[in-house]
Fold DUF983 domain-containing protein.
Amino acid sequence: MPDDTGPAPLAPVALLGRCPRCGSGPLFSGLLTVRDACPACGLDLRAHDSGDGPAVAGIFIVGALVVIAALMVDVTYEPPLWLHALLWPVAILLLSLVVMRIAKGLLVALQYRHRLRTPVR
């Protein structure tokens, strides 16, 4: 059932992966796959396509964070190169998944809030 008070706040929608209308139903059916519809309120989510936006955001945010962290670790602790080669790819993978999920939830919520939709095929 739709919530008549307006769209859900952006923070829980993006951070927790909740429905942009009701704020209670899960937005994702998998790690990064948006559901076809919200199980709680029935909102059709197929029309809300985030496109490549989360990937672009992820590249810039994760890239900056990892470069800064790698430089700080290298200057502070001077670890061997093999440790850098072991540590940073894992950090990049994990951070990318987290940032892309949050960015995707945020973009879907913003599309719903501003009534932007793509045609459903």
About this structure: The mean pLDDT is 90. Residues 10-113 form one domain. The chain has three helices and no strands.
